[in-house]
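Lab notebook, bench 4. Still working through the backlog of constructs that have no structural model yet. Next entry is a single chain of 183 residues. Request: give me the structure tokens for it.
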Amino acid sequence: MNIRRVYETTIIINAALEDQDIDVVINKITTLLTNHGGVVEEQNKWGRKRLAYAINKKHNGYYVHLIFEVAPSAVPVLERFLTLEDTILRHLTLQLSPELRAYRKEKSLAAGKSGETTMSSVVEVEKELNSGKVFYKKSANFTAPIAATIDEEIIAEVISLDIESDEIIEDIDVVAIETDENI
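Model written out:
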């Protein structure tokens, strides 16, 4: 049987490595996939980020997200490689259903994207969050961790106002109390 399925893998690489070394690790992974008859559809480098907790006494990681099409028999080979590679701190491989791919593409097109990349909205929202101009923005692929579920009108109001993030946090706390939801 030569059925190929679409998978996505998120990998955390040791951020202490130089950029060239990180690229070498990514190239090893993509080469492994292509050698087993796979096709890498997307490669998103999210960059260096602080980990929520230490992994192997490391506090920073370089995140890479791959979407690829490969035969199911190649997935255990990939998993074994990712497990044995010393520079990879963590990895997760999931099979993408056609419904999820269609949903991501639809949301991407609705957001004005070309539909080629599914994770571009994550990067854009993170840039806006880090700039301090916008604290929360609803997206198909990403939700700011501090504002889990808030009414759409309140979100639009927060985005339209150009106020400090401390004031927005106070507004979010008030909304959480009024709606009786935990944030």
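Notes after review: The radius of gyration is 19 Å. The domain at 5-96 is CATH 3.30.70.60 (Alpha-Beta Plaits). Flag for follow-up if needed.
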